[in-house]
Amino acid sequence: MTDNSLKSWSQVPGMQSAWLLNYDPELYPFARYLRDQVFRVDDLENLHQSNLCKPGTPPGYPDNLRLRQAMQRLPLSSEFYTIYTRFVHELVVRYFGGRISYAARPKMRVHLAGSGSVSRWHRDANVTGRLEQINIWLPATNCFAGNTLWVEDNYGSEHYQPIQVRLGQALFFDGGLLSHGSVANETDSSRVSFDLRFSAASRTPSAMTLRLLAGRPSPSIIAQLCPSLPPPPVSPPQPGLGY
Ligand SMILES: [Fe+2]
C-alpha cells in the first residue's frame, strides 16, 4: 500500500517555500554507500581529517572539487544510482503528482570543514531559465551553520538562513526563485551532499507542489528577481473588461 499522507514532511521554521522530507536512511542508504564505497572512510563528517586530505594544511576549494569528482564519476550502473532512482520513484513521484521529470545525475558536493564557501548567492531560474522546477538538497552528513545550505527566508529578502538538515532528511525548496548559496565552513564537520531539480508533470498540482510553489510572488516581482527570464506573456484584452 502506498502512503500518500503528508506526515513525513515538516516546514522549515521561518522559511517560505522550504520543506523537509523525513526518509529512512537504512532504506535509502546514500550515506553508507558514499562512506564505504566511494570515500572508504570511517566517518564522512571527518573527511577533512582522513588520508584523502593533506595533514596540517587547511583544505581549500581544490580539495572540495577533487573529492566531489569521486562522486561525480560514479557510473549510472553503480548502486548509488539504484538507491537514487528508488528514492525518486518511491518518494518524490509519490508526493508530486505521480509524474515528474528529473535530473538523471544529481550535482555532487563536498564542503570540507575549514574550507571557504563553495557557492555564491544565486537563483537557479536565472541560470536555467526555467520556473517550474523544484530543488531537492540531500546531505549524507548532518548539516548546520557553516557546513549547510543557506537560503533567503522569503522571495527577494536576501536575508539568509542556514537550513539545518540531518541525515535522513531531504530539503525541498523553491531554489528557482529563492536565492541560496553557502558560506565558509567554520564548523568542525565536513559536508557531503547532492542536489537535483525536478518538475512535476501532472495536470493537477499535488498538495506538496502547491506547498512549494503556490506562495510565489507576482510576475512583476519575479521579473525583478530573475531579469534573465523572458518576460511573461501579455494576456489578451478580455471582452467586457474594456473602457
Ligand atoms: Fe542553486
- CATH third-level topology: Jelly Rolls
Bound molecules: fe (ii) ion
* Average pLDDT: 92
Work out the helix count.
6
Basic shape: globular
CATH superfamily label:
q2cbj1_9rhob like domain
Instruction: Please give the share of residues in helix.
Output: 10-25%
Tally of distinct domains = 1
Name the beta content range. 15-25%
Strands, total number: 10
Main β-sheet description: 7 strands, antiparallel
Global structural class: alpha+beta
Distance between the termini: 57 Å
Second-tier CATH architecture? Sandwich
Describe the 3D structure.
With 243 residues, the protein is an alpha+beta fold. It has one domain (9-225): Jelly Rolls (Sandwich). The chain is 24% helix and 19% strand. The chain is built from six helices and ten strands. It has helices at residues 30-39, 61-72, 79-95, 124-128, 207-213, 219-225, and strands at 9-11, 18-22, 100-102, 107-111, 134-139, 150-152, 160-162, 169-173, 180-181, 191-200. Strands 1, 2, 3, 4, 5, 8 and 10 form a seven-stranded antiparallel beta sheet that branches. It is globular. It starts with 8 loop residues before the first strand and ends in an 18-residue tail after the last helix. 33% of the residues are buried. The structure holds fe (ii) ion.
